[in-house]
Amino acid sequence: MSINVGDYVLLIYDRKRRWLLKAEEGKIHHTHKGMVNLDDIIGKPYGTMVLSNLNHKFYAVKPTPMDLLLKMQRATQIIYPKDIGLILLNTGVVPGSRVVEAGTGSGALTSILANYVKPSGRVYSYENREEFLKIARKNLEKTGVLDYVELKNKDILEGIEEKQVDAVILDMATPWLAVKLAYDALIAGGHFASYSPTIEQVQKTVKELEKQNFIDLTTLECIVRYINVEEGKTRPETRMIGHTGYMTFALKVL
Amino acid sequence: MSINVGDYVLLIYDRKRRWLLKAEEGKIHHTHKGMVNLDDIIGKPYGTMVLSNLNHKFYAVKPTPMDLLLKMQRATQIIYPKDIGLILLNTGVVPGSRVVEAGTGSGALTSILANYVKPSGRVYSYENREEFLKIARKNLEKTGVLDYVELKNKDILEGIEEKQVDAVILDMATPWLAVKLAYDALIAGGHFASYSPTIEQVQKTVKELEKQNFIDLTTLECIVRYINVEEGKTRPETRMIGHTGYMTFALKVL
Amino acid sequence: MSINVGDYVLLIYDRKRRWLLKAEEGKIHHTHKGMVNLDDIIGKPYGTMVLSNLNHKFYAVKPTPMDLLLKMQRATQIIYPKDIGLILLNTGVVPGSRVVEAGTGSGALTSILANYVKPSGRVYSYENREEFLKIARKNLEKTGVLDYVELKNKDILEGIEEKQVDAVILDMATPWLAVKLAYDALIAGGHFASYSPTIEQVQKTVKELEKQNFIDLTTLECIVRYINVEEGKTRPETRMIGHTGYMTFALKVL
Amino acid sequence: MSINVGDYVLLIYDRKRRWLLKAEEGKIHHTHKGMVNLDDIIGKPYGTMVLSNLNHKFYAVKPTPMDLLLKMQRATQIIYPKDIGLILLNTGVVPGSRVVEAGTGSGALTSILANYVKPSGRVYSYENREEFLKIARKNLEKTGVLDYVELKNKDILEGIEEKQVDAVILDMATPWLAVKLAYDALIAGGHFASYSPTIEQVQKTVKELEKQNFIDLTTLECIVRYINVEEGKTRPETRMIGHTGYMTFALKVL
Predict the structure, then answer these.
(1) Nearest-by-Cβ selection for B227 from A82, A85, A246
(2) What is the DSSP string of B66-114?
(3) Total domains, chain B
């Protein structure tokens, strides 16, 4: 598979220095390790090596949905990939699923969900702040999944228009206020998920879930630890992300 | 969506007491909380409540791929959902991906991968122990994804027959021996992943990856912590799983 | 240093099978690995090996304060050594310190504190449940530190009689109710510590500390992970303790 | 207890802005929050509040051994308090213990050990780099425990001169080379501890311990997680220290 004009490529120097670029003729990418001429990668296969004018090695690879997410324009704090993986598996979202999400934010979670419900599924994503929706739309276009998403410029608290959806996934400041709406929108046996940084949000959301006919309430957090593997120096990394958010899951029953 | 004869349902009493059952007419399911007559759920929607003869509430829901995985017949230690989510996102496996996996084991990881590459993608799964393959085949049939999997009764160390695959995912005792084979089977820019319980396996695999033209080597572990959320008693659970396995990721370049 | 009649010894078979025994003449200790005759260790140095009648090796060592704590008769859940170490260092308790503690419980924390304030310091330990005090007294006698402890059969909420103490350490159900009393009992610059399993206890205690003239409020938890180190099998242990309690520290100022 | 000329005080503005100062007449301490005149605290009790010339509140408290450690001049990476607490409890070091330590480094661990073996115990601390010993000596003087420490300008690998010590604690690059020496220096039933950042150091040290007559080999790591407790915002802190070092413990038997 070769890189064509207009394709997005991830240009990698190392773990920290990597850029998401659109392959365009005559375009020069400037870095501290020299200039990379994008003409040198057009027509080449993904994974190709290219030298900067300072003779440093760069690699042009095909970005994964996660790479795209990490390189998105961010209007808001985004959910980490580690947490998205768990949300995906715990809500049972698969190709074909119909999912309601709020809020859209920068479209990070939206883009991953869209990638996994496609081709026949749909993500209905609520966001009342128009400036965020604009950013999200651009991000989803860039990641090539806009066709599988319905962006809705609405506050989810004013009502969920979809019915019988497979999952409702909330990443918002007051998820507890949307619990009843989520119940009504879900298919029987459908999945609720909420992502919240603070324990107070979790406490209120769980309280509300208990009032509705939800079962299987589960709250967890996911911690990823990177290991430096090097002969004679193998050890977990000194600094790590200690907390992103708690995830709460529940199942609608009748 | 209602439960038909022949469908698999997850019958839930609580977090720990839950059974994967095939809905069959006249079938009685015996539990410590009484007998559940499956006739009571046939024709009802997923999410329906049913009373046992001792008047306890049970719920019949549609199992997610993860529920199916957790209820599979296990010939071997299976990969945990938390780890599968990370493997999925880090390898960029999406609907349409072609993935090589070894070993098949009980087919747990296989079943999740198949669920996410479908409908147009494929999982090629290597396993040289025939008795495991039999169990895996049954599990994949049960989970409804056998059509998206090619089970291969071969030792991956004898060679990977597929070429230009998007990802190679190893869950085997000696992943380092398959690194060169993975490199050859991968498309340029393709993803390598290895899952190993011990640090020595990681050390050897990383050493081998460094010899091949892989970049972006990353080793991590994922720890999930369950939180008990209850008014006045909110706290992380006393006991937890401390370790399952390390995951190592890498990217093939040219 | 040799083992005399009346000394306590820790008899070790392996990590899980170990007993705290009083060396007595003619005493036989029965285990699944055979009988150990305590006469075989009396007069021998600590660290001595002794064979059971089934020819299994046992070792008689001098118990540390932590060994004594772990083998105490327990009336209540005790604080773990990992947490005690942090409490000790964060409160600055050293030989000579005067410390108020509540509740005594089984005397576990009391015994460690006493070991580190001796010879010139004192632990004042409040416990209103007489049956616990009895157990604690026996435990402190056994561990040889009763001389450094003043056991008080009183509810700390009725008042702290000591003044100008260096530290107040609370391990009780309602620590927030004792915050004001702790403030009054502490020397200026003295240390407050509270150990609580639930987040609600922490929330209430912090709120109360903020009302008093305490600074440097710090809440943390301590997680210990055991590593299995064995050639080719090195890895964190599969199961671990996920949570014991949160610790909150503060400093009294004027 | 009031602050006298020559006493060390910890001057606290907040969690991150705090200074260890010697109370001297006429001394002015400059900060971003204004100047603090040390004359204002001399003769006052510890815990006293003092205003800077910009009217910000500062508190002068008595430093704990841990405060002193954290404010020491550092020639080397020091062991964290969380790890020191565990070493203390696992090795059973108490007032009166005789402990061998290597290397001295900046004297951080030395200072805590000295604080807990005093008044009758002793720490024998080996360090072959003279420039470190100088720094350590100054640090121990400052922390007031030099009398309980014997600083030895020697490489521990050339031999441990002390015999029948209660504990040997190693914080050095090659602890495995000192295992045999530690065995010979320890009293029967005495405690070995080693602190190492990398897993390879642990692997080699454990291998060596297994060759000697050590039992009860235990390797662990200690992770401390800070919790931000604030109404509506309670959550673990976003960033944390992911790894400092592994600790390996063992018991000498005959």
Answers:
(1) A246
(2) HHHHHTS--SSPPPPHHHHHHHHHHHT--TT-EEEEE--TTSHHHHHHH
(3) 2
Q: What is the pLDDT of residue A77?
A: 83
Residue A75 within any structural domain of the chain: yes
Task: Output the average pLDDT for chain D.
Answer: 95
Nearest to A82 among B86, B246, B253 (CB): B86
Question: CA geometry: angle at D87 spanning D81 and D92, to 5°?
Answer: 130
**Final residue of a domain: which of C63, C84, C107?**
C63
Residues A89-123 pLDDT 10s: 999 999 999 999 999 999 999 999 999 999 999 99
Q: Find the CATH number of the domain harbouring B33.
A: 3.10.330.20
Q: What local confidence, expressed as pLDDT, does residue A88 receive?
A: 95
- Taking the model in full, what pTM does it have? 0.95
- Assess if residue C3 is contained within a domain: no
Amino acid at A169: I
Question: How confident is the model over B188-241, as pLDDT tens digits?
Answer: 999 999 999 999 999 999 999 999 999 999 999 999 999 999 999 999 999 999
How many other CB atoms are there within 10 angstroms of residue A238's CB atom?
12
Given an 8 Å threshold on Cβ–Cβ distance, is B118 in contact with A112?
no
Asked if residue C75 and residue C43 are part of one domain, the reply reads no
Enumerate the β-bridge partners of residue C215. Answer: C251
Tell me the CATH number at D108: 3.40.50.150
For residue A79, the chain B residues in CB contact (below 8 A) are: none
Residue pairs spanning B and C at CB distance below 8 A? 60
B144-179, pLDDT tens digit by residue?
999 999 999 999 999 999 999 999 999 999 999 999
177-206 in chain B: CB under 8 A from chain C: 197-200
Closest partner CB to D200 (pick from A226, A232, A238):
A232
* Rounded distance between C-alpha atoms, residue B10 and residue A251, angstroms: 12
B3 domain-assigned:
no
* pLDDT(A196) > 90: yes
C36 min Cα distance to partner chain B (Å): 34
What's the DSSP call for residue A212? T
Chain B positions in Cβ-Cβ contact with residue C236 (cut-off 8 Å) = 242-243
Same-domain pairing of B102 and B122: yes
> Closest to D241 (Cβ–Cβ): which among A197, A239, A243?
A239
Q: Using a pLDDT cut of 90, give the percent of chain A over it.
A: 92
Provide the shortest C-alpha distance from residue A227 to chain B (in Å): 5
D240–A239 C-beta distance less than 8 A = yes
Say if the Cβ atoms of C242 and B238 lie within 8 Å. yes
Q: What φ, ψ does residue B206 adopt, rounded to 5°?
A: -65, -40
- Give yes or no: residues B76 and B55 share one domain: no
Residue B225 C-alpha, separation from nearest chain C C-alpha, in angstroms: 7
My answer on whether D36 and D86 are in the same domain is no
B192 near B251, Cβ under 8 Å?
yes
Please tell me which of the candidates D198, D233, D235 has its beta carbon nearest to residue A243.
D235
| Cβ neighbourhood burial of B30 (10 Å; 0-12, 13-18, 19+) | exposed
Contact criterion met (CB below 8 Å) for C89 and C28: no
Given an 8 Å threshold on Cβ–Cβ distance, is C219 in contact with D203? no
Q: Which chains touch B (3 or more CB pairs under 8 A)?
A: A, C
Asked if A102 and A114 sit in the same domain, the reply is yes
Same domain, D83 and D151: yes
Q: State the residue range of the domain holding B199.
A: 67-252
Residues B141 and B35 in one domain: no
Both D76 and D36 in one domain: the answer is no
Q: How many cross-chain Cβ pairs, C to D, lie less than 8 Å apart?
A: 200
Cβ partners under 8 Å of residue B63, min gap 6? A92, B8, B9, B10, B20, B71
Q: Which residues of chain C have pLDDT under 70?
A: none
* Residue C140, pLDDT score: 95
What SS3 state is found at B252?
A: strand
Within-domain flag for A71: yes
Residue D247: list chain C partners with CB under 8 A. Answer: none
Name the β-bridge partners of A20.
Answer: A10
Contact at CB, A222 and B61, closer than 8 angstroms: no
